[in-house]
Amino acid sequence: MTTPEKVESAASQQMRDNLARIETLTQRMVEAIAQKRPLNPALEGPGLDLYVSSSTALMREMTANPAKIFEAQVNYWAQAMTHYIDATHAFAQGTFKPPADPGPKDRRFSNPLWDTHPYFNFIKQQYLIASTSIEEALAKIEGLDPVDRKRLEMFSKQIIDMMAPTNFLATNPDALEKAVATEGESLVRGLENLVRDIEANRGDLVITLADKNAFSVGHNIGTAKGQVVYRNRLMELIQYTPTTPTVHKTPLIIFPPWINKFYILDLKPQNSLIRWIVDQGFTLFVVSWKNPDRSYADVGMEDYIRDGYLTAIEEVKAITGEKQVNAVGYCIAGTTLSLVLALLEKRKDRSIKTATFFTTLTDFSDQGEFTPFLQDDFVDGIERQVRMDGVLSSYYMTRTFSYLRANDLIYQPAIRSYMMGESPPAFDLLYWNGDSTNLPGKMAVEYLRGLCQADAFTTDGFDLMGELLHVSGVKVPLCAIACETDHIAPWVASFHGVAQMGSNDKTFILSESGHIAGIVNPPTKEKYGHYTSEVPIEDPQEWRAGATYTKGSWWPRWGAWLSGHSGKMVAAREPGDARHPPLAPAPGTYVAEVVVL
Asked: One of 331, 452, 479, 483 is an active-site residue; which one?
C-alpha cells in the first residue's frame, strides 16, 4: 500500500535526481561554451556596429523633431495606463477576470490563459501596446535615409520579437503548466536539449529544428532512382531513371541553389518534383553541388559557370545525343543561369532551348529585407571573414536567414525544446533546412558586390569571362515562377528582372505561399493555388490586377509549357552511356558531405 510517507520519499528522490542532473548538465554547458568559436568580424569592430549606425540616424531625427517622439511617448503611456486602470478595476470587482480583449489574435498567444487569466492577459496586452507603439513611432519618423529606416525597422522587429512574454519561463503559461504537470521534469529535459545544442555547435547556441536521426538522405528522403553519370570538383551530375516507356526528345537539366542541397526537390515520394517531372516523360538531369571547404577559397562565379553550368550542359548533350537542353535554375542558381544565357547569347551558342526560373532575382535595385545585410559595413566584414575561413560558412548564412523569420525559426522552436522539454520533430523540410552548405569565399564576395550591391546585371553590365553581360541578353523562351509571400526573392523584384529580359516569349506564374512551399507544391495536395495573367510583363501591379487565380499547383501548367518546347517522344533513356558509366546511385556522394570549419 502506498503511504503518504512513501509518496513524499519518492518525490524527494525525484527532486534529488533532478538536482544531480542539473548539476551535471550545468558543468557540461560551461565546458561547451568554453569552446565557442570567434565571433563573426562582420558583426563587430570599428564602424561595423549596424545598430549604432542606424540608431545614430534616428537620434539625429529625434533631435530635429522632438515633438514626434514626445507625441509617441504620450500615446503609449495613455494606452498603457488606460489598460492598467481597466485591469485593476476588473480585479477590484472581485471577478478575477481580465477586461475585454478585442484585439486581433496572435498565434503565439493561443493558450486560453492569455485571454482568461488576469496576470497573463495583462502581460500580453502591455506587450502588444508597447510593440504597436514602437512600430507606429518609427513609421512616423521623417527624414530618415531609406537604408537607415530599413535597418531600424529590422532591429526594432528583432527586439520586439525577442521580448515577447512567451519567450520567458515566468510569463509562458504553456511552459509553466507543463512544468507543474511533469513535476519539473520538462524543465530538466529542456536543459538537456539546451546543453545538447551548445555541445553540438562548439559553444554556440544553434537550435535543433528537426530530429537528425529521423532522416537519412538516400534512404527515406531523396530516394528517386537514378545514377551519378559525371563528377568534377564542383558538382555531380545525376541522371534519373525513366518511369515511362517514351520521353520527350529534349532533355531537362535542373540547377539547384548551392546554398542548400538539391534534395529539397525530392524530399518524399508524394511531394517530389523530381519524381513528378520524370513521371511526365522527361529525361531529367539534376546537378548536386559540392559542399566546399577552405581549399575552395578561390573558386568564383566563372568557375561555377564553366565547371558547373557549361560542363553539365555539354555532358547532357553528349549522353543524350541532343544539340539542345531545357534548363531550370532555382534561386541563386536561377540568377546564375540568367548570366549563362546572356553569355551564350554573346557567343551565339544555342545549347539552351528554354529556361525556367524558380524564385529568381536578377534585378537587385530593391534589396528588400536583406537591405541591412547588403551595406558596405556588413559586406566588408564578410570579406574579412572569408579571408579567415576561405568560405562563407553555412553557420553565418543560417543565422541570417533564421533571424528574418525569428518567431518561426528561433523563438518557437526554442520554447518547445528548452522550456517544454520536447524533442525536435521528425520534419523533413526542417531537416533539410539545417543541412546547409558553405559558399566559396571568392564567389560569395563576387555575388554580394557585383550582383546584389552594384546591381550590375541590370545596369552597367556584369563582367564575366571577358564579356559584359546584361539581363537583356536573356533571349530564349522562358517561364518564371515566383511566390507570393517569398521573403528571400520577393515576387515583385523577380517580376522586374523578368520584365527586363530580352526574350519575346515570356510566361510568368505567381504561386501562393513562400520560397520553398510555393515551389514544392505537388498537385495531389491542392494546398496552394497560382495566378496567371494575359497582361504584358511590364508592370507587376497591373499584371497582378489582371491575373486569374487557379486552384492547385502550378506544376501541371508548367509541365504543359515545357512539353510544348521539348520535341517529339522518343524511347526512354537509361542513365549514362559507354562514356558515362554510373559512378554512384542517386542522390550521389556530394549531397552527404558535411564540412565543419
From this structure: 331
How far, in Å, CA of 384 to CA of 48, rounded? Answer: 12
pLDDT band for 444, please (50, 70, 90 cuts): very high
For residues 453-482, give the mean pLDDT.
Answer: 97
Length of the chain: 597
Mean pLDDT of 564-577: 97
**Residue 313: all three cell numbers together:** 550542359
Q: For the chain, give every residue range classified as CATH 3.40.50.1820.
A: 226-370+442-592
Q: What is the pLDDT of residue 45?
A: 43
Q: Counting Cβ atoms within 10 Å, is residue 578 exposed (0-12), middle (13-18) or buried (19+)?
A: exposed
- Whether 331 sits among the annotated catalytic residues: the reply is yes
Given a contact cutoff of 8 angstroms between Cβ atoms, the answer to whether 25 and 195 are in contact is yes
Nearest Cα to 511, choosing from 339, 357, 408, 368?
357
For the record, the C-alpha cell of 276 comes out as 513528378
Residue 260 has pLDDT above 50, yes or no: yes
Mean pLDDT of 22-29: 82
Any idea what DSSP says for residue 334? H
| Of 215, 228, 124, 113, nearest in space to 166 by CA | 124
- Could you tell me the three cell numbers for 88? 485593476
Mean pLDDT of 438-464: 95
Are 502 and 475 a contacting pair, CB within 8 Å? yes
Is the pLDDT at 41 greater than 60, yes or no? no
Which of the four pLDDT bands, split at 50, 70 and 90, describes residue 47?
very low
Question: 77-91, 399-413, 437-451: lowest mean pLDDT where?
Answer: 77-91
Quote the cell numbers at residue 427.
520534419
Rounded to 10 deg, the angle between the 118-140 and 66-92 helix axes is 170
* Architecture in CATH for domain 226-370+442-592: 3-Layer(aba) Sandwich (3.40)
Whole-angstrom Cα distance, residue 147 to residue 155?
12
258-278 residues labelled b (16+ CB within 10 A) or e (exposed):
bbbbbbbbbbbeebbbbbbbb
To the nearest 10°, report the CA torsion of 96, 102, 107, 112: 20
E strand residue ranges, 260-410: 284-289, 325-330, 352-358, 391-392
Q: What pLDDT band is residue 106 in, cutting at 50, 70 and 90?
A: confident
Q: Which three cell numbers stand for residue 228?
A: 551519378
At residue 434, the pLDDT reads: 87
Q: Is the dihedral of CA 413, 35, 258, 444 positive or negative?
A: positive
